[in-house]
Amino acid sequence: MLYKYKLHTPVEDFIPITAQVKGAIAESNVKDGICVVYCPHTTAGITINENADPDVVKDLLLAYKKAFPDLPEFKHCEGNSSAHAKASAIGSSVSVIIHEGNPLLGMWQGIFFCEFDGPRERAFYVNISGND
Ligand code: ZN
Question: What are the C-alpha distances in Å from 122 to residues 66, 75, 115?
Fold first, then answer.
């Protein structure tokens, strides 16, 4: 089953989407299976990381900024090559095991939509397969 969600994003942030993923799993009635969370954009991505201390997301954004600075040598005419690099590094999707009707996440883990080139109207997909 495929579910689509829309987001309006800020300039740069990790937006928590665990609640939407849990909602999709509940609606699907799948109890044991797999769930793929996918982002169809080239300057945004999906990741799993800590959702307990909000400073972790701030530190990750700083780490990506330092790792992928805006370089004067970049040739891409849109001027957002550093956002493309960050999106490629983080990846377009995550797979999560569904166990007993819930995503099998660690105690401190959450699923995030990662915006690197906002503000924009964005979407992500949740595809669920498995058994009732
Ligand atoms: Zn671009």
Answer: 25, 25, 9
